[in-house]
Automatic annotation (TrEMBL):
Name under which the protein is recorded: Guanylate cyclase domain-containing protein
PANTHER family listed in its UniProt record: ADENYLATE CYCLASE, TERMINAL-DIFFERENTIATION SPECIFIC (PTHR43081:SF1), ADENYLATE CYCLASE, TERMINAL-DIFFERENTIATION SPECIFIC-RELATED (PTHR43081)
Top-level taxon of origin: Bacteria
Domain Guanylate cyclase: 76-208
GO biological process: cyclic nucleotide biosynthetic process; intracellular signal transduction
GO MF terms, alphabetically ordered: adenylate cyclase activity
SUPFAM superfamilies per the UniProt record, alphabetical: Nucleotide cyclase (SSF55073)
Gene3D superfamilies: Nucleotide cyclase (3.30.70.1230)
Length: 262
């Protein structure tokens, strides 16, 4: 089988594996992981995609059957979005757009993983990640802020490469919010996904939307956080207020701050 075909099979199997892994007894997981890895793991290190699934799988295996239970956790959620991606993608073939997104998400995933985050999903050109589950992370907000700063630095660095090749720069918005959420297996039988549910998710995405009002043409990355994130993260994170905003679908104003990516 060609390497490209093996890679596609490997990715499909990995996604289904992660969605259903915590349904199985812990004793069975070790056997399945060993057999599955030997069968589908690409033969070259450079072929391995960078996702948040591997750390999450290890945590779910360690927790065993307890991992399937829904629990309330204090977590921090991060959303990213590429500015004007629709117009950007119109200039690319479907193959080139897919290659661009894979490279883009690999950069972002590396930053999330470096801070112990879990990548929940990719939505078009957006990424959703969270901290505080399945592993307990008291510093979940600080981790999310550090990951966001690393993402901004990666985007700026990659844009230098793109300009050298005559390619347009990539601009990104990031929104972060912290609070309680239900975490665990969500979905119909056979299509279970370890994820989180709660207003915190919508709020994080709405905060990312606010960045549209704050971003200038010179900005390559803007990181906005709620006051809840700053309280949780402590003095490690420095930010400037951008005012109170009535987020879409909400009635009460939210204090929003711009994180300094120093």
């Amino acid at each position: 089988m060609r390497l490209e075909s093996r890679y596609c099979v490997w990715r499909a199997q990995r996604l289904q594996f992660v969605r259903s892994i915590s349904l199985l007894p812990a004793r069975s997981l070790a056997v399945i992981c060993a057999n599955w890895t030997r069968q589908y793991e690409p033969t070259t290190r450079s072929s391995r995609p960078c996702t948040g699934s591997r750390p999450m799988v290890k945590q779910l295996m360690a927790q065993g059957e307890q991992a399937s239970a829904l629990v309330e956790r204090e977590v921090t959620v991060l959303f990213t979005d590429i500015v004007d991606f629709t117009s950007f993608a119109e200039r690319l073939s479907a193959s080139d757009a897919a290659t661009f997104l894979n490279d883009h998400f690999q950069q972002l995933a590396a930053c999330v993983e470096a801070e112990g985050g879990t990548i929940d999903k990719y939505i078009g050109d957006s990424l959703m990640a969270f901290w505080g589950a399945p592993e307990m992370q008291p510093d979940h907000s600080a981790r999310a802020c550090r990951a966001a700063i690393a993402i901004a630095a990666a985007i700026v660095g990659d844009n230098r490469r793109r300009r050298g090749l005559g390619l347009p720069p990539v601009r990104i918005r990031i929104g972060i919010h912290a609070g309680p959420a239900m975490v665990g297996n969500i979905g119909a039988p056979g299509r279970i996904n370890y994820t989180l549910v709660g207003d915190i998710v919508n709020t994080a995405q709405r905060i990312e939307d606010v960045a549209k009002k704050c971003m200038t043409n010179e900005d390559e990355a803007v990181i906005l956080v709620s006051d809840a994130v700053l309280r949780s993260a402590g003095p490690e994170c420095s930010a400037q207020p951008v005012g109170e905003h009535i987020l879409r679908g909400r009635h009460e104003p939210t204090h929003v701050f711009r994180l300094e990516a120093s």
